[in-house]
């Protein structure tokens, strides 16, 4: 396939392509040793169990945790539900009088909905706003915590649309001083910024394998052991994963998750520098071709590879995508892309509906080449000019 005909994938925040090394690590556990990792009565089962525990060690190392603090799940959505609902329900069952649960307006849907679902169980959801750059003001969190005893605070490490990294080093101590647990959805942070749960002081942290070049359908929840964080499980079963997440563990997926975590830890520093350079190259080329581009989110707090860009001229992103061939980008979160309304994240940082509707999310990743970003900038600029011409013609 020629360079000009190759599909350019720039939607790495929706999902990353599996690394070939991940696929190679997984394959034997599909074809050769397909045993249940809980069938420890025989050698094949014990081998699968050992592979799962090796994967747990790699995932734990990626975030600075102990292996026994890692609970495997089906992905970050389940991890977020387990962290938020599990902490609230366990505390309530123990007679804890705290009912306030705090989160942020730009969180992933599964966090916002988990917090809101708790209202039906007698909890008080509090959703804090963010500033124009997408950051939570520490003063706003402090004020919310001062209003009433709070059980849990959940703040995303890196936003999945605008790529802004929250200042967890400042926010976590504020919550801890108030006696609240702190959870962070780190699905978009792992591999993109350094993470160390001990250094951050978080109690709960969610991960997803397919955001770090691993397989879909598997994730993890870090649950702090000392002092111990207690959760109520979401569903009943055989008591796997220390009773927090019943169900047969998918050994091949977990092996892939472990290998993806190992690679991210070993190569993350160099990869982040390379991706940051690609991002700068792309933004410079596109800005020259499309005067008036607006970059969303605090520019000093954005992770390498992310670009949320609002295009000028009243051109809708959907119109641009209809004219764009050979490049995969999105208008926002894959979990909300079926909705007709503009992104709630962009609204939360102050964009009007017309601006939000003219915004694209670009996700540069591990396998993006300089030639890819150069060609993508050309194709996006051409799509914008075409859509702008049509918009102007329709207005006349």
UniProtKB/TrEMBL annotation:
Per UniProt, the keywords (alphabetical) are: 2Fe-2S, Iron, Iron-sulfur, Metal-binding, Pyridoxal phosphate, Transferase
The record's annotation in Pfam families points to: Aminotran_5
User: Which species does this protein come from?
Assistant: Teichococcus rhizosphaerae
| Sections of the chain in a coiled coil | none
SUPFAM superfamilies recorded for this chain? PLP-dependent transferases
**Catalysed reaction, written as an equation:** (sulfur carrier)-H + L-cysteine = (sulfur carrier)-SH + L-alanine
Q: What are the EC numbers? A: 2.8.1.7
MF terms in GO: 2 iron, 2 sulfur cluster binding; cysteine desulfurase activity; metal ion binding
Residue span(s) of domain Aminotransferase class V: 8-375
**Which cofactors does the annotated protein need, by name?**
pyridoxal 5'-phosphate
| EC supergroup of this enzyme | transferase
Q: Which family does it belong to?
A: Belongs to the class-V pyridoxal-phosphate-dependent aminotransferase family. NifS/IscS subfamily.
What the protein does?
Answer: Catalyzes the removal of elemental sulfur atoms from cysteine to produce alanine. Seems to participate in the biosynthesis of the nitrogenase metalloclusters by providing the inorganic sulfur required for the Fe-S core formation.
Q: Which PROSITE patterns match?
A: AA_TRANSFER_CLASS_5 (PS00595)
**What is the designated name of this protein?**
Cysteine desulfurase
């Amino acid at each position: 396939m020629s360079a000009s005909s190759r599909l350019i994938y720039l939607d790495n925040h929706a999902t990353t392509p599996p690394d070939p090394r991940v696929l190679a690590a997984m394959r034997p556990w599909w074809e050769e040793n397909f045993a249940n990792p809980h069938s420890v009565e025989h050698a094949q089962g014990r081998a699968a169990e050992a592979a799962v525990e090796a994967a747990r060690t790699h995932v734990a190392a990626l975030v600075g945790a102990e292996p026994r603090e890692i609970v495997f799940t089906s992905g970050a959505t389940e991890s977020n539900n387990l962290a938020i609902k599990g902490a609230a329900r366990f505390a309530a069952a123990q007679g804890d009088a705290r009912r306030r649960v705090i989160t942020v307006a730009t969180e992933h849907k599964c966090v916002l909905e988990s917090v809101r679902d708790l209202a039906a169980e007698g909890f008080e959801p509090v959703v804090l706003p963010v500033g124009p750059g997408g950051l939570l003001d520490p003063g706003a969190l402090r004020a919310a915590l001062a209003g009433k005893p709070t059980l849990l605070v959940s703040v995303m490490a890196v936003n999945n649309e605008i790529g802004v990294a929250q200042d967890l080093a400042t926010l976590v101590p504020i919550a801890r001083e108030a006696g609240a647990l702190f959870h962070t959805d780190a699905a978009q942070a792992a591999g993109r910024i350094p993470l160390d749960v001990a250094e951050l002081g978080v109690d709960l942290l969610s991960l997803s394998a397919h955001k770090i070049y691993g397989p879909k359908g598997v994730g993890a929840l870090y649950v702090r052991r000392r002092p111990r964080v207690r959760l109520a499980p979401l569903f009943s079963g055989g008591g796997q994963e220390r009773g927090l997440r019943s169900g047969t563990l998918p050994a091949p997926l977990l092996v892939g998750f472990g290998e993806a975590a190992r690679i991210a830890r070993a190569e993350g520093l160099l990869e982040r520098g390379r991706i940051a350079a690609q991002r700068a190259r792309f933004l410079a080329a596109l800005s020259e071709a499309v005067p008036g581009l607006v970059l969303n989110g605090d520019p000093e707090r954005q992770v390498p590879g992310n670009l949320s860009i609002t295009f000028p001229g009243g051109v809708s992103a959907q119109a641009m995508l209809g004219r764009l061939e050979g490049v995969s980008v999105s208008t926002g979160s894959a979990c909300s892309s079926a909705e007709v309304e503009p992104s709630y994240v962009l609204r939360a940082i102050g964009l009007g509906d017309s601006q939000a509707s003219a915004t694209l999310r670009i996700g540069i990743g591990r396998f993006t080449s300089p030639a890819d970003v150069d060609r993508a900038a050309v194709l996006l600029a051409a799509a914008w000019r075409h859509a702008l011409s049509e918009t102007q013609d329709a207005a006349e």
